[in-house]
Amino acid sequence: MNSEETPGANRGIPSSFRDPSGxxxxxxxxxxxxxxxxxxxxxxxxxxxxxxxxxxxxxxxxPHEEVLIEYAASSEAYKVIKPELIPxxxxxxxxxxxxxxxxxxxxxxxxxxxxxxxxxLKDGSAYNIQFRKGKPNLIDTLSFEKYREGQPWVAYRxxxxxxxxxxxxxSYADVRLGQLLRVYLDGIPLDLASSLLHFPTYMxxxxxxxxxxxxxxxxxxxxxxxxxxxxxxxxxxxLGLIDNLKSSISKLxxxxxxxxxxxxxxxxxxxxxxxxxxxxxxxxxxDKMNPRPQCVWDLGANIxxxxxxxxxxxxxxxxxxxxxACVEKNYLECVKNRxxxxxxxxxxxxxxSPSVGWENRERISFLKRSPADVVLALALVHHLAxxxxxxxxxxxxxxxxxCKWLIIEFVPKNDSQVKRLLLNREDIFPNYTxxxxxxxxxxxxxxxxxxxxxxxxxxxYWMRRDTSSPRE
Amino acid sequence: xxxxxxxxxxxxxxxxxxxxxxxxxxAYIDPGSGSYFLQLLIAGLLAALxxxxxxxxxxxxxxxxxxxxxxxxxxxxxPD
Lengths: 472, 80
Known about the structure:
The structure holds two protein chains of two kinds.
Chain A: E1 10-12, E2 22-27, E3 30-36, H1 40-48, H2 51-57, E4 64-67, E5 77-83, H3 97-116, E6 119-121, E7 129-132, E8 135-138, E9 144-146, H4 156-172, H5 180-183, H6 190-196, H7 205-221, H8 235-251, H9 264-267, H10 272-288, E10 295-299, H11 307-311, E11 316-321, H12 324-337, E12 342-346, E13 372-377, H13 381-387, H14 392-402, E14 403-410, H15 416-421, H16 434-442, E15 445-452, E16 459-465
Parallel strand pairs in A: 10-11, 10-13, 11-12, 13-14
Antiparallel strand pairs in A: 1-2, 2-3, 3-5, 4-5, 6-9, 7-8, 14-16, 15-16
Chain B: H1 2-18, H2 33-67, H3 70-75
């Protein structure tokens, strides 16, 4: 949008267009945020009151530095700031239950602290939260406005739709309902949440109030023209609202059940020696990469056992799985161990997050966040090929698009896991062989190493994207 | 405590039908009239619950400090 005003210099970020207080843009591949003149008072209060320092010191807000006004993208600029870059952006529909819960709780914690400094959050969007060094952080520096005595919380509706409703649905109905966030970008409509939540939720004061009555209130007042000048909400009531939401969200629980995938390492045919050998090979391959990789994607990561080989080396590792129980267990382990370089995400590789929102550009697709330096595809190819009927040529082409280095495991048909996959169906995969696998992948990659994993029929490959390939 | 909660729940349902206390709201995101009115409706209740919580925490803390020698309280990691 603003790139037109400074041709060739700035590139607007499609998701940053709603707030008239300012916007984000790229300049020479660095991210900047313009603070508009109309936000001057609020920005100055944020910086001068001590709120900014408090939030940054508490690792609740992404830090920024002020840069020269010459970097401004338009004439409305009051200041230009350069926020610390989030190396990998993720979205609420890619988070596990506890990730969304932690994001909700830090939003409320920020609101509590802001009130001590005479400010309030003017929006409660889950998209304003990103995971930085393993913890949720607020990324929108312009989310604050000066608190006006007597004013209710303007972000209340949005907070309930973005956080409380999905968490209540995931906790009380089905964890997969979190995926409604992918459809409803401004949060799950409260009337929908209310209709999906069972009767016991009416017996909980907070859910009765913030979801069921809230939905009815929206319906009742939705189309009414009303006088808006008579009544106020005290500061004590404001604090009471935030405290009530906080206690409500803290009490929401979801215990990941033992699913097929979250028990994979218990039920599978891995001998401990095979497992150790595979770990050792992945470590060796990662160590040999030059230059040292900055970002690893572990696809089909399960609970992140192999992801941690990379993240323990200080490499940012995105650990993806399609099973909510696996992602939840993975995240809880990250929290327990205070891991800073691992980000578990919920992702179905056969249907990855698409680009959605305004112009289909507001929230970018998972694949547009590529290429990763390294992709780990361990015990994955047979699921793509045999459960999802993808031919090896398509799989090779796909990996070629998303990574520079590839560590991939081929699981042949005589492996017990593959036999299980083919147990109750016709084998229509004559081309699923190691020879075809190598032929197809050699069209896009150079195989640097191929090692048979001890005590298994499987082979672990280390490949580099072939830049001389005509497809490059 | 349980009885108070029940009273609150049903009282809230009845009160909801009778209230409408509006005020001007400034926001680039529409807070929604329904969301706005609901906050005003439950404001008094939330303020009361919050006050009780804060004072109860203080009273409990005071009693615990008086009842237990400070060293023992530290060993037990009793909340202040």
